[in-house]
Amino acid sequence: RMIPHVFGNPLLSSLITGFVAAVAAYGAFITPKIFGFTYTTFGSIYPAFVALLVFNLVTVAVCYWFYVRKSANMNV
């Protein structure tokens, strides 16, 4: 629901929504591959959890920086 609000043009927001959905679909494919790689390489899935935790923390920080703080340009 945030994308149509940020991009006012209906055509642009539908294009961005489709692109985001396509990228998100890869998450169901990449996540098990990450777990398999770390289990094969390190003998444990702990590094995969650490990598995904770091990725999630970075994405939360990016969302905070661009949307939540008072001086953000894209207040939603």
TrEMBL record:
InterPro entries: MFS_trans_sf
Keyword check for Transmembrane helix: yes
Keyword Signal: no
Membrane-spanning ranges: 12-32, 44-67
Keywords in alphabetical order: Membrane, Transmembrane, Transmembrane helix
Protein name: Major facilitator superfamily MFS_1
The organism of origin for this protein: human gut metagenome
